[in-house]
Write a structure and sequence with these properties.
single chain, Glutathione S-transferase Yfyf (Class Pi), Chain A, domain 2, four-stranded mixed beta sheet, 10 helices, 4 strands, binds glutathione
Length: 250
Amino acid sequence: MSQTRILYQFPISHYCEKSRWQLDHKGLPYVTRNLLPGPHRLRTRLMANIDTLPVLRDGKRTVGDSTRIAYYLEKYYPNDPLIPAAGDDRQKVIELEQQFDRYGIYVRRWMYGLVLGQPAVMDAMFDPYNLPTIIKRLLVPVTEKGVAQLYGIRPDRVAAAGEKVREGLALIDRCIKGDPERYLVGKRLTLADIAAASLYAPLLSPPGTPWDMMPFEQQPQAVQEALLPIRESAAGQWVLRRYQKDRFRL
Ligand SMILES: N[C@@H](CCC(=O)N[C@@H](CS)C(=O)NCC(=O)O)C(=O)O
């Protein structure tokens, strides 16, 4: 495995999943480095002059932000392309990627609004770090508060995010014409599919993703009631289908 290609990440970040999926799709070996939420900013500032993860270090080059990483990878590793070379489809993929990137913010806010406070959330966030119990116990309340503040987890904003989440699902539905087998653009997987499927994945907990630590069946009734219509919709089924059919891991 290449030690020179490193994806700095939070394991449960859906934006990091988007970059992992693209790297895996292109068959590019990489290692992941999990940064601790909070102190991560010291590293991301230094490496890429941003506050967020993912950041990719590829040999001597460093790129931050999943969209910039996506375009960087398409440029330097054009095998198994995820953006059509020209024409209407290219424009559609570019636009959809941008749209789903914005919906990702609302997915995160709405989902945290539903589940933040459950011990399983902090387990999913911190277990990959193998921290000593005492450290985890100290970090959990600080992180829960930080997440709520940073991502605007307030009832009014969470409710508004729910509307946006549904808007994004309706967009998926229009692109696939109600058929979970179809791709968003054209006849094969593109960056638009990877963006939409990975950024909506926390709501569906596809098997093999970091969110499968929080299976639907183990959620409280209110959460199940909120998620069920999504699971049963064509767009929700589409996310699960893309994971089943197109999400290969190196
Ligand atoms: N536009 C960015 C968004 C990434 C993002 O929001 N990452 C979150 C985790 S899901 C993050 O790093 N948050 C920590 C922070 O803002 O300090 C991208 O596409 O990479």
